[in-house]
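**User:** Once you have settled down, spend some time on the protein underneath, comparing sequence with structure tokens, and judge whether sequence predicts the tokens.
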Amino acid sequence: MKPTKLFSIVFSLTSLFFTNIGFSQNETYNITGKLTANDSKDPLSFVQVALFEPGESRPVAFSDSDDNGNFSINAARGEYLLRFFLIGYDEKELEINLDRNRSLETIELISENQDLEEVVVQSSKFPIRSDAEGLTINPSQNLSNLGGTLLDILRNTPSVSVSEDGAITLRGSSGTNILINGRNSSLTQNLDQIPASAIEQIKIINNPNARYDAEAEAGVIDIVLKKGENLGTHGNGELTYGTRGRTNAGVNINHRTLKYNVFAGYNFRRWRSIGERRTEREIFEDEETLNQNTNSTDENIGHNLNFGADYYFGNNIISYEGFFQSSDDSQINTLYSELRENETNDLVLEYVRRNRETEADDGFDNALIYERTFEDKDKTFKVIASNSYRNQYKIQNIDIFRNASEPLEENLNGMERAFTDEKRYVSIFQADFTSPLSSDAKIEAGLKSNIRKFDNDYIYTRFEENIQDFVEDSNVSNRFIYQDQIHAGYFIYSNTSPKFDYTLGLRGEYTFVDTFLENTGESNQQNYFNLFPSLQTLYKINEENSLKLSYSRRIDRPTAWRLNPFPDITDSLSVRRGNPNLQPEMIHSLEFGHLANFENSSLTTNLFYRHVGNQLDFVTIIEDGISYSQPANLNTAESYGIEFIGITDITPWWNINGSFTAFQLKVDGSNIGEEFVNQGFAWNTKLMNSFTLPMGFSFQLVGNYESAEIEAQGRDLSQYYVDANFQKSFWENKGALSVSIRDIFDTRRFAGNSLTNTFRQSFYAKRETRFVMVSAKYRF
């Protein structure tokens, strides 16, 4: 029997079994009362009345008041928040200790149009929260995120580094499993298209347990989009305008009753930028040095729409979540190259390549979710079916000016065109069940299928003078199709006590990979099964201090574009190509930490170690004077280090949060060559000072520093930058006007160097990073 068919049968039987599991009934008590208007004293009918457990957004019970304003609601013994909601009236909340039947006095609701003094209770919402599992980031608390994207949020996140091309590393390790609302999605291929204003929070889990995919060396980044969960109608709007005409506008709205919730958000983004890149490469055998300079300008116009609904009936919740993304990008990259002899400095080769590139991206992600709720809140059952699609169509028009130093029309002597049609499909089917075994123990179990397809059709043509037309080059053009299926099941047992909590998990994943290169008819199939154990423990020393220890075994499979062997020859002397022989990385990850939480501060200390077998890294080789950059499996890589994350209120008006991460990296690529063995120490730190000033003003200063970091053949150099942000609040904090100055000292750039037995190379890349943004936002 095929694995996919077997998995479908097991999935269906398990879902049917879980759905029909019963649940125990606890003793319940009754709350009654009457609701009237504050001004007229008339009874209020159709008021929505709901009981919430503190800190929860989903009610444990709800009802409506009748024609006489009377209401009645039942729930089990406990402490609750009793909330009342009616359009046109202020929401009201009462604390209730339900240890017997309760009859409340008449409760008055205040009309929204009454001009009454009101008491506003504000609570501090830390931008970063650290717990036993990882970090939770609240983007709205960092003013540097205004008008930005997901990458801007991650740049200001502890332990995270963002490279020149948007690649993410955690604690010096690449390969992250990025999720949207807890699900795999094809839309995560372009993180710079997800606006910061659409993101509710980000969860970073460096050492996830068996509940999560074993995919990715560095861990999990879960992007939670805004949907709104408070009763009533709520919304917010944001408009940002900056230098070079940078624009970002967005609006989010939701309406929730006790029976349903609907939400939607739209974001428009126009981003313009300029940049430069310089590369110098010396090939020792040829005794020649290549110097290349690239100037670039680009503009991106994007639209993002997220929307959905939740429907509550009985003990059931059905939800739909959708996300649509569309963008158009245009770039002009002009590359100047000259090759000279080292001894005489004589010019050997000179040319200019001007690439005018347009790209259209469209993507759609949607999910249907069923959740069964139980009176025991520790018991849950959820089924998810989701599908995402992304299409990227890119056109490159390349003008070549050989034996010339300037891209003048009279120097034009070559033209090339390239067309890329890339489609990605991701389908997810998942069921998760949690049930307590006793007051101290519970089990979790689940099944998941992740089915993906990547179809890249690349057509490359050259202009032929003799026929005055473009002719396809079959040696470069290619169509590469990648498909994989990952079927998984997991089981977790956890136990908690006043002093010690632990979680044991085991995940099994069956992987099937099928690649097909249409040009040559080559097909490559792989299938394998792996087990991934995990352990998480927490020892509570006292109310303020805890120790944690976690371990997980993980895998990082080579991505589709890394496996595609056909080259990208945008630059004919510096070529990038894939490697169809790549094998997955196998990772062992260990972490030990200390959590200290006090009333106005917290400090997290983590010691971590990671061992990677079959380390995937990019290496550069020289063939016939041409540089080829391609991925390869190295023997091993090891990293170990320490991390500090601290948050504190120095005074009621001054808050500081920051992080410091230091680690040692060791890469062993001796299976390729002696020069692919490297090791080094690296560190980074981030610090954010937030000041609450009189008259509704606030000020924020954000600093980032990343030291030099080694690669297999060299190292990336250090970088640092500072952002400053000002904000003035209006209308009881419902509105705000902000000014953000990014990279005040214009220091942010990427640079690095490589040294091998055959060549040396250095690069310097600088985008326009210093600019000013003005933002206005309003919530209702």
Summary: Residues 3-19 form the longest helix (17 residues).
